[in-house]
């Protein structure tokens, strides 16, 4: 048995041998002829010439052997529904959905945009696309029409699959009017919108000729058989948009074969889940964790996966543990914000249930602070494993590999670089940091299988965004500060750019600024991420109004702040709403006009604003202080 260090070293020094072994974990219709083609750095192609299919690996191959075993377990504490699909039943539903796609003219390579709540049909929609070689792009249901329109114009979907409404905290959250608005704003128009009618929003608008009803079409394709389309390993499986420093999100493009292998191997070596067990990830299909560890990963490994619609607190704070007991969950995956929410509840809710099947709990998406990590692991009595990764990578870059070696957990650390990632910490001049020295976490390419192959439609942006940190060496920049201790344990210290992380969700401050700027009263605005005990960070806005009379009294200030909130809600969704909008008459800038964001952030967090020798107008700082004190 290798140590994690030997395992990692083997993957870096002999990648062809290493990944050829890992590739045996999935089915190939045709074998690959080359493990990695890195002839055009930084672009890497994995398992060249191999033909496979994600849907086959996640569903069909298990349905053939274990048709009646649990595959998809849907639990909604919003509508009080529970439904279990066996592998055979899941395959049937996916084939029906795939037949509907074909009847609507969707072909291999076409994009299918999915804007849906956490319901089984959303999983069918993703698998059906993968089955026929269409490229899905799931947009988080919490995004509003502006965000959705940007994504429609970038992905240019032939078909959009949606639903009348989601549910949150017992209330229906209508989706369809947001989708109609987005299609109205977007230049690209989809041929069809396939609507899953949950009966939650009775009067939703139906556009004749464009909108079609899922239930009606499903009836017409009950006995449909749709074979899997065998894709060359590098052909795209999906696009997932993520925020960056510009206002325009990037479409992370994922391949097919490399992704399937990476997920299969991660289930074996990191998550330690196998056939017949159950995986419970509390994420959402709109995020990368949902793609990798609700939809594809567990099923590829032959596990059942839980799709949960609801909050951690309803009907009571024991709900997740009740699910663990009922479905004998062996691996759980959640986010630090959720742990911080649970920490505030009575621990009796956790101890009331039989959690004996649970091997360990994984946490990712944002820094897991030491006290929360310690509390959670002690309370649960089993390893809580912090793992660090990004939408771009699709699976962990830093984690403990308990499938290889049971290394001790250090609270506050996501442990070590994962096999396949030649990840190091660099100084700003491109040299490597020593132990206990803060630097930028970066990966020497090629990126391992499963990571983004490019930015959708923008190869140049892929190179310029991720691979231009230094002239030498060529590295993939994570845009995260990191530090490594004497024992080789890493800690992530936050972003190097203007991206903030709210409850594990990445938001670009530029996107929020652009949304706020849509309010007619706003002349200029700066948004920064401010530390928050529960959510890690929250956005805070400092805005200059065009007409001072709009903020002449405290009542007017409150009213304008409310208006700004609803502007953001309408464009980005409530997810992008700042915690506060402070109105000022000027923003702190350097003499060359650069916004002093770090100073703004420091002031908002009650810290020293730092070096201000280049500030244009020092009185702006006083205003910020006053606004924060008000
Ligand atoms: P996203 O692509 O939305 O998943 O966001 C990725 C970013 O979240 C990373 O670049 C980090 O800044 C942060 N992140 C994700 N996982 C962790 C973790 N385990 N510890 C610290 N930060 C994390």
From TrEMBL:
UniProt-listed SUPFAM superfamilies: Acetyl-CoA synthetase-like (SSF56801)
One GO biological process term: propionate catabolic process, 2-methylcitrate cycle
InterPro entries: ACAS_N (IPR032387), AMP-bd_C (IPR025110), AMP-bd_C_sf (IPR045851), AMP-binding_CS (IPR020845), AMP-dep_synth/lig_dom (IPR000873), ANL_N_sf (IPR042099), Propion_PrpE (IPR012694)
Domain AMP-dependent synthetase/ligase, chain residue ranges per copy: 60-439
GO function terms (MF aspect): ATP binding; propionate-CoA ligase activity
Domain of life: Bacteria
Acetyl-coenzyme A synthetase N-terminal domain segment(s): 4-58
PROSITE patterns: AMP_BINDING (PS00455)
Keywords associated with the record: ATP-binding, Ligase, Nucleotide-binding
Family named by the database record: Belongs to the ATP-dependent AMP-binding enzyme family.
Entry protein name: Propionate--CoA ligase
Protein source organism: Azonexus hydrophilus
């Amino acid at each position: 048995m290798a140590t994690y260090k030997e395992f990692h070293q083997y993957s870096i020094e002999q990648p062809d041998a290493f990944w050829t072994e890992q590739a045996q974990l999935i089915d190939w219709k045709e074998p690959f002829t080359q493990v990695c083609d890195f002839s055009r750095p930084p672009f890497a192609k994995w398992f060249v010439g191999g033909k496979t299919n994600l849907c086959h690996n996640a569903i069909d191959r298990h349905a053939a052997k274990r048709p009646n075993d649990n595959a998809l377990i849907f639990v909604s504490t919003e509508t009080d529904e529970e439904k279990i699909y066996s592998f055979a039943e899941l395959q049937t539903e996916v084939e029906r959905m795939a037949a509907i796609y074909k009847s609507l003219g969707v072909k291999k390579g076409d994009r299918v945009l999915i804007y849906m709540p956490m319901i089984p049909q959303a999983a069918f929609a993703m698998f059906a696309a993968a089955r026929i070689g269409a490229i899905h792009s799931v947009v988080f249901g919490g995004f509003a029409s502006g965000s959705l329109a940007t994504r429609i114009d970038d992905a240019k979907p032939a078909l959009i699959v949606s639903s009348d409404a989601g549910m949150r905290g017992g209330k229906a959250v209508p989706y369809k009017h947001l989708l109609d608005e987005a299609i109205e704003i977007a230049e690209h128009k989809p041929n069809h919108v396939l609507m899953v009618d949950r009966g939650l929003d009775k009067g939703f608008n139906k556009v004749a000729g464009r909108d079609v009803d899922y239930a009606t079409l499903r009836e017409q394709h009950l006995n449909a058989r749709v074979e899997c389309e065998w894709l060359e390993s590098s052909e795209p499986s999906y696009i997932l948009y993520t925020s960056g420093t510009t206002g325009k999100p990037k479409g992370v493009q994922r391949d097919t074969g490399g992704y399937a292998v990476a997920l299969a191997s991660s289930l074996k070596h990191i998550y330690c889940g196998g056939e017949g067990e159950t995986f419970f990830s509390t994420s959402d299909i709109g995020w990368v964790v949902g793609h990798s560890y609700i939809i594809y990963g567990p099923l590829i490994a032959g596990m059942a996966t839980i799709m949960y619609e609801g909050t951690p607190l309803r009907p009571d704070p024991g709900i997740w543990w009740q699910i663990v007991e009922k479905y004998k969950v062996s691996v759980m995956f959640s986010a630090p914000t959720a742990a911080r929410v649970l920490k505030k509840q009575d621990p009796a809710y956790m101890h009331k249930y039989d959690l004996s099947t649970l091997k360990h709990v994984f946490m990712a998406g944002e820094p897991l602070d030491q006290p929360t990590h310690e509390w959670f692991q002690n309370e649960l009595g089993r390893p809580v494993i912090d793992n660090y990764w990004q939408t771009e990578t699709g699976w962990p870059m830093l984690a403990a590999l308990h499938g290889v070696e049971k290394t001790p957990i250090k609270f506050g650390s996501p442990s070590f670089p994962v096999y396949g990632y030649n990840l190091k910490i660099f100084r700003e001049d491109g040299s490597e940091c020593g132990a206990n020295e803060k630097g930028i976490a970066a990966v020497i390419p090629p990126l391992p299988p499963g990571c983004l192959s490019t930015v959708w439609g923008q190869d140049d942006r892929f190179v310029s965004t991720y691979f231009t940190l230094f002239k030498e060496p060529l590295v993939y920049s994570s845009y995260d500060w990191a530090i490594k201790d004497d024992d080789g344990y890493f800690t992530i210290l936050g972003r190097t750019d203007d991206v903030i992380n709210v409850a594990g969700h990445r938001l670009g401050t530029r996107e929020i600024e652009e949304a706020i700027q849509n309010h007619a009263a706003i002349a200029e605005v700066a948004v920064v991420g401010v530390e928050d005990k529960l959510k890690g960070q929250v956005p805070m806005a400092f805005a200059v109004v065009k007409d001072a009379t709009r903020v002449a009294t405290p009542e007017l200030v409150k009213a304008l702040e409310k208006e700004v909130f609803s502007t953001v809600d309408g464009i980005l969704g409530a997810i992008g709403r700042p915690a506060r909008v402070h109105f000022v008459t000027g923003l702190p800038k350097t003499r060359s006009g650069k916004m002093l964001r770090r100073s703004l952030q420091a002031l908002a967090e009650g810290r020293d604003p730092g070096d201000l020798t280049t500030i244009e107008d020092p009185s702006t700082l006083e205003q910020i202080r006053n606004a924060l004190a008000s």
